[in-house]
Design goal:
about 70 residues, mainly alpha, 4 helices, about 0% strand
Length: about 70
């Protein structure tokens, strides 16, 4: 499994999942109980994903596989 993305690829993967699975970044943050809102979400999203899932790749695998359902 590839562990890295092209520049911006990790942010793109997170954004695609936020939209497809949750409808928005705000709803994704609410689902996870992450406290940031507004512009703070964009500054912290990659950190929160890595803290919660271990990596952006693990986050992507989790949600693209349907493991959260």
């Amino acid at each position: 499994m590839q562990n890295s993305y092209v520049p911006g690829g990790d942010a793109k993967a997170i954004a695609e999942i936020a939209k497809a699975r949750f409808g928005s970044f705000e709803k994704m943050f609410e689902y996870h109980g992450w406290p940031e809102r507004g512009s703070d979400m964009m500054r912290k999203v990659q950190t929160r994903v890595a803290e919660t899932y271990g990596s952006v790749k693990a986050f992507e695998v989790h949600f693209r596989s349907g493991a959260d359902r």
